[in-house]
Amino acid sequence: MPAPIRLRELIRTIRTARTQAEEREMIQKECAAIRSSFREEDNTYRCRNVAKLLYMHMLGYPAHFGQLECLKLIASQKFTDKRIGYLGAMLLLDERQDVHLLMTNCIKNDLNHSTQYVQGLALCTLGCMGSSEMCRDLAGEVEKLLKTSNSYLRKKAALCAVHVIRKVPELMEMFLPATKNLLSEKNHGVLHTSVVLLTEMCERSPDMLAHFRKLVPQLVRILKNLIMSGYSPEHDVSGISDPFLQVRILRLLRILGKSDDDSSEAMNDILAQVATNTETSKNVGNAILYETVLTIMDIKSESGLRVLAINILGRFLLNNDKNIRYVALTSLLKTVQTDHNAVQRHRSTIVDCLKDLDVSIKRRAMELSFALVNGNNIRGMMKELLYFLDSCDPEFKADCASGVFLAAEKYAPSKRWHIDTIMRVLTTAGSYVRDDSVPNLIQLITNSVEMHAYTVQRLYKALLDDISQQPLVQVASWCIGEYGDLLVSGQCEEEEPIQVTEDEVLDVLEGLLVSNLSTPVTRGYSLTAIMKLSTRFSSVNRIKKVVSIYGSSIDVELQQRAVEYNALFKKYDHMRPALLERMPIMEKTASNGPTEIVQTNGETEPSTVEAKHPPPVTQPTSQANDLLDLLGGNDVVPVIQTTIPTKPASAGGELLDLLGDLSLSGGPAPAPAPSVPTSQPPFLLDGLTSQPLFNDIAAAGIPSMTAYNKNGLKIDFTFERANPNPNIAVITIHASNSTEAEMTDFVFQAAVPKTFQLQLLSPSSNVVPALNQGTVTQVIRVLNPQKQQLRMRIKLTYTHKGSAVQDLAEVNNFPPQSWQ
pTM here? Predict the structure, then answer.
């Protein structure tokens, strides 16, 4: 068999490949030749073949078939074979392969070899991939080599001991006697590895940490010698003596001095010397200074030393290197809570970092700027941060706006300043603010009674300038609806009042309704604001026309609002002033951050909040009952339905046209009923009987019936008669599903003619299981005082196999016993 090509030739050949496929073909061809050589037990070229295999492994190609060949090379007596064998073991083997255990005896023999370089190979391999079993077996040999006088072996043995401790922590005490003597070594390599070993032991064992604290003076002495020593070409890096060893010692001092007064006191002086004597013109010096700062901040250092450390970070901020500036900002952000005043001295430099071109530096500078805000500098810092908000990238606007809101709420010097600041944010970055910003600002404005005229005037001006920022438009619409009379009357004292007519205000709000920039939520705000102005302005006829136009809007939510508001102008006009009066002062919830509105007025969606506000004046009983019929006029009986939480509130409007030829147009509409909180609707039939309807319901022998059976969905009705009031029929629906897929988002709705009253209770679930494996039940109560034949129209909506399904049906075949 011809001699295999050398490693150098293989590398040259692979580099000539023009495509990945060509390179792969070369590798496969060479792997085949190497396998053949392995099968023939060719000892002559085994070392060369394994070396080539390692090169292929580094290129990312599989080389596991060479694992056993590595073990054969390790067992060889030739140093060149051992070197490649151990290198292959470190690259191709780890503790997950059982074959690595076969090396244990070879490593043990090589640890006791007469040649230090063979011993070094064995120590490197054990420290790189030794498993816990191997570490237990060979820890004694490693501990012996730690005590040898050969510095070449001692430094390798110290690093190998670190690996042993990580794998088998209980062997730590074995290395304790040898470790004490390592710090007296003059060789920097041994010193470096011994500090690494001490650090590992202190981090893993509190007992070791307490034991080694007495070594602090010795470590301080070593560090002082490094600083004061003259030029040493062997250890010099950019004019600094062995910076790697200095950094390691500083990290160990940080661990030893943490939460310990005596150790901290012993290292204060040397830390001050390092901080003042280290050259900062090169990156090497900056690395040492950074470790010094971290050590000063972690130990119980003197206040003057901490100020010195923060000043070092302040100098870092002026460095041209972006990495150093980023490190300084990150470190200041960690220390700002404990040394706030010292960091404040560098506030101007930190604010300048907001103008940096690097996005990561800008983000850290923004976070640190918000951390520096307090009651004394709130005005200046907000000015800078608002300027940053104007010019920053979109990715920063949301976090910056949120930070401004938090800082303004916590440190606002006055309510006017607070309102102006929030409005400035909404004007600048309204599209990026959090969802709770609108209700929070509305609450702030509501509670600032003396600022109502000023606020509504400012917001009206903002609307004239720009209607693209939807949160700003929503707040402005709400305020104009609440305080439009103050705007028209020109009662603003804080600034020169503007002359505005009622028609001009209505023109602006109507413009929002038709603007393409307005979202459906914004249109809801605007329509509700126009409705509220019907009690504040004299242009009632114009408002009636606008409201009636949107009664046929394609937007269901807007249409429902318009229909409900139109009903207020008709049957319930006498209640309109009480329903649309100004909102009361809103209570706060305790919060760490933005103030939230207590949800006593329903949802935070603006028009819903307003429409659901209960009038403070106590209404007569007859008017309270009228409110329950608010949508119906003279021809409709309302249906109050308790829906499950997963159903959106706006779904109530779907019953508006449900009844069709039953001469009904009303349905469950939670939004306009002020006396009906959304959480627990009042019992519709309260007052009709002195006993609760939930008790004493007895079966009356009424036969059940199937009301609907289509597309696999079957609705059965069972009947009971309420004992306290025989005019009340209790109907329980049972919905079952015979298809193979479950029906989700299931909603059952019903309506009856005006001579009846009906109440729907909550369903047992909104998912109808497949294959009739379960049913959804829901209770309906119907009051039939005139004993007329029962008729009902039902509406079913659900999602089946990813498609939304909706169907209407009329039920007229109720058994006579259910209504007679």
Answer: 0.61
